[in-house]
Structure formats: structure tokens, C-alpha cells
């Protein structure tokens, strides 16, 4: 089933990419309306939008998915129900495709909810307590966004249709559309894990690594950014951009800082995804939706490759994810190391790789835009932190001695894993330049002073040095003060966000439930409800039985008393009959 799914997904990816480039060249958009049924002159219509943006994004999703499924053939070879795993992944891809081509809030909700439900199934795939907790956090955090879209659906009824794309130019003074835009921003923030909903994204690393490669590159987390790209005219009309800019920059800064103090390989890459999502959100808020979409595509290519390389390392190290156990992997796994370092350099924005074309352009646009010093500082400092944790990852995994078991040997022998990585390596190197020529046929000319032009490169170099300094830290109470260790705990735990979004949110409802159970169900409810009545009647029956058993005269007296009452009632009845006659 893996090979068949790989073949069809790759075929559709190629077809959609060619069609997307053709639509881009001729500037063509296609609306398809399919009438499902008609009832009392009311039509239920399914609408799809086929334009260059949806086609290119779908081709990227399917290309990455095809290689991830091929890669899973070896990574999940011990899985007894591999076909079930592939089916769940295909449902995930179908939900994302449904979301991409929908200009209608109803059909968007179907794809959006599909992503949320299937992601829960994938996060709890390895069935243990940690996976279950991560799955619940993921599902409930995303549920907030689902509810926001559900609320926006009845608000859209004020316009007569759920196709928001028809009302771009009739919204300047509409209060209803303002509310809908706010709800869509809330939904996008939950799905793309912006502050304060960021804690679910590293927790979702409990899923198998092929799923992480798919989720963090082109599907689940990018759904919020893609939805805001579609709603971009409304963001600009109502001037909500400043809020998204602030939240996006804070998310970028928080995740970049946290990744420098993390030792779990997958969580470091997950935090780097969070940082890039903050970058996409913030540049989108300035009105550069094409640029945000461009970075979304380039990021999908190198982030999927980064996760595949991480999965290859974890697979060979018998599921060990701690980077402190790694070292000198380049001698054992040269191909994985090459792919890993190329994707890390793409992430940093190294010139002429995929990440450079979008990231450098974004930073130059920020230099050219009217932003304050705080936003400017957060942008460049967060870019430096990206280079910092990438270099730290290189330092721990590639240099020094191997810290795994001395008698253990591993290599790059897997064909399926190597094929998946090479397939993404080619597009990670050449994809950025190709996309930049296609999406921006007339290049952006950003004229800046030389010190601002070189600031991006300088930021990467200084960030790499900072990563080297952090890598040499020895965390011990003898060397550092308690204040510094508290700072490391604060930044390494994402500003305590996982605790705030789990312990403090769930403590009050759970404690209320416990006390209500104790007081009502197990307390007064027992005494006054069914259990209390049962006890009372049992006591009454036993008491009357004891009276009967203790004295036969009491029994006879009771019998005579009841017979007397029956005779009295009988005579009263006869008397009433005679009177009526």
C-alpha cells in the first residue's frame, strides 16, 4: 500500500504543480460550484476555488506526503498495522486538500475539523500516558479554533452566503465582517500555535516522526497561516495587522529562545517550526501575503527534510532523542548528516539555499517598512537565535565523540529512508530560487544602506557564535547562580506556557468536579436520592417484620383493624348507592 500511495500522490503532485504554474502564468482562477441537492428552492452548493495558490500548495503537500509515506515503509517496519497508519495519514492529507481548495466557511470547517480529529489519532498513535496527554492538549487547543469558525458561520448568514471570497470589496463598513475576521484570527492562532496557544505544538511530538515531518512542514500548523492569507484583504481593511504582528514576533522570540535550552531533538525542530510560523504571521500582518505564502512553501521543503533526518538518527539510535547522546554521527551516517546540515543551513537563511530567498527578502522588507525598534529588534534577534540553535544542534550531533553505547554501530543502510531524504534534498536546494522566479517574475528591488544589507548575514554569523557559546555551557549549581538556572527553566519551558495551559486551566474544573462529586453524588445525593430511599424502606420493612415476628397478637390485631376499615368503606359505598336510587 505504501508504494501505491507514493506513486499516486507523486503523480497528482506533478500534475497540480504544472497546472498551478500554468494558472500563475495566465493569471487565471477557476470557481467550481457543485449542487449537492435542492430543497424547496434552497440549493446546498459545494464550492471549490482552483487558482495558482491552491494548486501549488496542494502539489507541495502531496509531494512531501508521497515521500513521507515512502519513508514510513522502513521507519514503521515493525508496525503490525502499517496499512492502518497509511490510511490515517491519507485521511490527514485529504482534510488538508479540502481546506486548501475551499472558499466556503462550511467546507473549510470540514477540512479544519478533519485535521484536528485525525491529528489526535496520530498523536496518540503510540498508546501511552504521555501520548494521551499530548493528544488531549492538541485536540482541546485546536477545539477553540474550531468553535471560532463555528461561531463565524452564523455571522456570515448576514451576507446571504458562506463564500467569504465574494465579499472582499463590500466589507469596509461592515460590523459583521469585523467580528468574523476577529474569529478567523483566533482560529488561525490556535491552529498555527501562536501565543498563548503554543504549548500543544512541542507536545504533538509524541506522534511518529514521519507524521511530525508532515504536520510541521505543510499540513496542520500551516493551515492557520493559509487561512489568514486568504482573509488578508479583511485584515488590511480593519487594521488588525498590528495585533498579529506583535503576537507573531513574540512567538518567534519565545520559541527561538526556548530551542537554545532544549535537549530533545524533535522538540528543538518543533520550536524552530513555531519560530517560522511567527515569522510568517508577522510578515503577513504587514500586508505581504505573497511573501508569507512564499516562505510557507520554502519552509515546508526544508522542514520536512529536517524531520526526516532527525527520524533517521532516532531510528538508528534505537529511539533515543536526547542530543547529548549523539556526536560524530557524520562518521556513521554521512548521507543523513549532509541532508541534516543542508536543511539546517536552509533554516538559517544561508545564501542561495531555499530558505535564503524568502527569509532574506522578509528581513529586507522589515528594514524598509515602518516598524518600531522593538519589532525590528525581535525580528533580527530571533533570526540570530535560529542560527544559534541550528549551530548548537550541529555541535552536539556532528562534532566531538559519540556518546552512545560504545559497542553499538549504525549506518545509512536503509533504502527507503535515504530515497525520501534525497527527494527532499534536491528541492530544498533548488526550490527557493525556482519559486522566487515564478511567484515574483519582476524581482523586488529593496534599496538599503550597506550596513542594513549586511545585517542579515551578520545576524546569522553572530547567532552561530552565540550557539557555540551556549553549547559549551555546563549546567551546574557550582558554576551558575540560582537566578541563571531559573532563567534557563523559564525560557526552556516556553515561558511556563505548558503549565499555564494544562495545570492552571484544568485544576479549577477538575477540583470543582471532585468536590461536587463528593458533596452531591457521594454525599447528599446518596442520602436523599435512590440510596437513601432504599435504606429507609429496608429499615421500615425490617421494623414492621420484627413487629410481626415478635408478637402474633399484633399481627391478628392489625388484620382485624384492616378488615374493620374495609367493612366501613364497603358500607359507605352501599349507603351511597342506596341514596342515589
TrEMBL record:
It is found in: Mitochondrion inner membrane. It is a multi-pass membrane protein. Core subunit of the mitochondrial membrane respiratory chain NADH dehydrogenase (Complex I) that is believed to belong to the minimal assembly required for catalysis. Complex I functions in the transfer of electrons from NADH to the respiratory chain. The immediate electron acceptor for the enzyme is believed to be ubiquinone. The chain crosses the membrane at residues 7-25, 45-70, 82-101, 107-126, 147-167, 179-197, 209-229, 241-261, 268-288, 300-317, 329-353, 373-395, 415-438, 450-470, 482-504, 524-542, 554-574. Its main location: mitochondrion. GO terms for cellular component: mitochondrial inner membrane. It comes from the Eukaryota. Residues 389-570 form the NADH dehydrogenase subunit 5 C-terminal domain. The keyword Mitochondrion applies. Residues 102-385 form the NADH:quinone oxidoreductase/Mrp antiporter transmembrane domain. One of its GO terms (molecular function) is NADH dehydrogenase activity. Belongs to the complex I subunit 5 family. Residues 38-85 form the NADH-Ubiquinone oxidoreductase (complex I) chain 5 N-terminal domain. It is an enzyme of class 7 (translocase). It comes from Locusta migratoria manilensis (Oriental migratory locust). It holds the Pfam family Proton_antipo_M. This is NADH-ubiquinone oxidoreductase chain 5. Keywords: Electron transport, Membrane, Mitochondrion, Mitochondrion inner membrane, NAD, Respiratory chain, Translocase, Transmembrane, Transmembrane helix, Transport, Ubiquinone. Its EC number is 7.1.1.2. GO terms for biological process: ATP synthesis coupled electron transport; electron transport coupled proton transport.
Amino acid at each position: 500500500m505504501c508504494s501505491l500511495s507514493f506513486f499516486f500522490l507523486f503523480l497528482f503532485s506533478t500534475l497540480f504543480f504544472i497546472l498551478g504554474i500554468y494558472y500563475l502564468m495566465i493569471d487565471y482562477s477557476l470557481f467550481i460550484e457543485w449542487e449537492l441537492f435542492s430543497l424547496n428552492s434552497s440549493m446546498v452548493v459545494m464550492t471549490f476555488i482552483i487558482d495558482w495558490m491552491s494548486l501549488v500548495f496542494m502539489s507541495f503537500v502531496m509531494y512531501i506526503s508521497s515521500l513521507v509515506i515512502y519513508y514510513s515503509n522502513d521507519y514503521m517496519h515493525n508496525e503490525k498495522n502499517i496499512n492502518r497508519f497509511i490510511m490515517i495519514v491519507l485521511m490527514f492529507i485529504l482534510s488538508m486538500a479540502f481546506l486548501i481548495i475551499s472558499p466556503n466557511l462550511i467546507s473549510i470547517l470540514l477540512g479544519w475539523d478533519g485535521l484536528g480529529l485525525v491529528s489526535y489519532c496520530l498523536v496518540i498513535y503510540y498508546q501511552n500516558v504521555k501520548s494521551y496527554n499530548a493528544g488531549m492538549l492538541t485536540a482541546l487547543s485546536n477545539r477553540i479554533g474550531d468553535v471560532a469558525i463555528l461561531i463565524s458561520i452564523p455571522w456570515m448568514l448576514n451576507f446571504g452566503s458562506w463564500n467569504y471570497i465574494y465579499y472582499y470589496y463590500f466589507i469596509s463598513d461592515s460590523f459583521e465582517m469585523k467580528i468574523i475576521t476577529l474569529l478567523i484570527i483566533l482560529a488561525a492562532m490556535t491552529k498555527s500555535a501562536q501565543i498563548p496557544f503554543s504549548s500543544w505544538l512541542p507536545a504533538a511530538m509524541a506522534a511518529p516522526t514521519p507524521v511530525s515531518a508532515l504536520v510541521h512542514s505543510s499540513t496542520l500548523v500551516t493551515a492557520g497561516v493559509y487561512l489568514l492569507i486568504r482573509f488578508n484583504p479583511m485584515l488590511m481593511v480593519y487594521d488588525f495587522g498590528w495585533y498579529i504582528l506583535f503576537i507573531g514576533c513574540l512567538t518567534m522570540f519565545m520559541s527561538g529562545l526556548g530551542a537554545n535550552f532544549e535537549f530533545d531533538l524533535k522538540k528543538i525542530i518543533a520550536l524552530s517550526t513555531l519560530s517560522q510560523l511567527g515569522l510568517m504571521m508577522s510578515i503577513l500582518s504587514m500586508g505581504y501575503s505573497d511573501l508569507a505564502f512564499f516562505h510557507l512553501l520554502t519552509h515546508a521543503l526544508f522542514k520536512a527534510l529536517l524531520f526526516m533526518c532527525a527520524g533517521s538518527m532516532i531510528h538508528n539510535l534505537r529511539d533515543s532523542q536526547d542530543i547529548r547522546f549523539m556526536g560524530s554521527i557524520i562518521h556513521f551516517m554521512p548521507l543523513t548528516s549532509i541532508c541534516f546540515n543542508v536543511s539546517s543551513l536552509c533554516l538559517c537563511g544561508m545564501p542561495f539555499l531555499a530558505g535564503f530567498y524568502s527569509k532574506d527578502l522578509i528581513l529586507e522588507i522589515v528594514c524598509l517598512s515602518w516598524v518600531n525598534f522593538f519589532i525590528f529588534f525581535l525580528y533580527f534577534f530571533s533570526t540570530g537565535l535560529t542560527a544559534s540553535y541550528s549551530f548548537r544542534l550541529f555541535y552536539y550531533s556532528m562534532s566531538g565523540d559519540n556518546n552512545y553505547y560504545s559497542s553499538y554501530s549504525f549506518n545509512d543502510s536503509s533504502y527507503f529512508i535515504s530515497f525520501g531524504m534525497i527527494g527532499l534534498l534536491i528541492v530544498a536546494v533548488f526550490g527557493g530560487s525556482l519559486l522566487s522566479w515564478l511567484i515574483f517574475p519582476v524581482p523586488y528591488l529593496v534599496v538599503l544602506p550597506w550596513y542594513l544589507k549586511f545585517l542579515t548575514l551578520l545576524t546569522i554569523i553572530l547567532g552561530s557564535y552565540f550557539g557555540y557559546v551556549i553549547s559549551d555551557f555546563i549546567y551546574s549549581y557550582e558554576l551558575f547562580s540560582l537566578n541563571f538556572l531559573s532563567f534557563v527553566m523559564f525560557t526552556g519551558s516556553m515561558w511556563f506556557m505548558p503549565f499555564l495551559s494544562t495545570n492552571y486551566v484544568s485544576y479549577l474544573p477538575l477540583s470543582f468536579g471532585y468536590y461536587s462529586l463528593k458533596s452531591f453524588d457521594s454525599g447528599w445525593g446518596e442520602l436523599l436520592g435512590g440510596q437513601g430511599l432504599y435504606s429507609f424502606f429496608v429499615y421500615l420493612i425490617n421494623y414492621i417484620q420484627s413487629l410481626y415476628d415478635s408478637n402474633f397478637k399484633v399481627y391478628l390485631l392489625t388484620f382485624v383493624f384492616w378488615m374493620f376499615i374495609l367493612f366501613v368503606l364497603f358500607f359507605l359505598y352501599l349507603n351511597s348507592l342506596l341514596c342515589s336510587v
